[in-house]
Design brief:
elongated; 0% helix; 3-stranded antiparallel sheet
Length: 113
């Protein structure tokens, strides 16, 4: 039995230390065991491209032209999106973009407005 806690992402027991971090070899999640997990109180912590924390209801600006599958043109850089909702998953922002409708965005392609 390992003396380290299981992985918070996949619950694997095969965790090993590296410097001051713990690493899971199954899902490659790295974390500092001395820090509190972000979801400990039930809130989701999402950071924009500049490292600012986003919250539900914030406005963001898209920083890169984003192609949309099935649309003839991309969402242009500089497009402002209001009233975002944070979601769990790969695309961690749910929003409604003017001219495109409802969609999910990755937080790494937006900055807080």
């Amino acid at each position: 039995m390992s003396e380290f806690p299981p992985c918070p992402k996949c619950s694997s027991e095969y965790v090993y230390p590296s410097d001051n971090l713990l690493i899971c070899p199954e899902c490659f999640h790295e974390w500092n065991p001395e820090e509190e997990p972000a979801e400990a109180d039930g809130t989701l912590k999402v950071l924009d491209s500049n490292g600012n924390e986003l919250k539900d209801g914030d406005s963001v600006v898209i920083i890169k032209d984003l192609p949309v599958k099935g649309a003839p043109k991309p969402i242009k850089a500089g497009t402002k999106v209001k009233n975002i909702r944070l979601a769990d998953g790969d695309h961690n922002i749910d929003c409604k973009v003017d001219g495109f409708g409802a969609m999910g965005l990755k937080s790494e392609f937006v900055r807080k407005a």
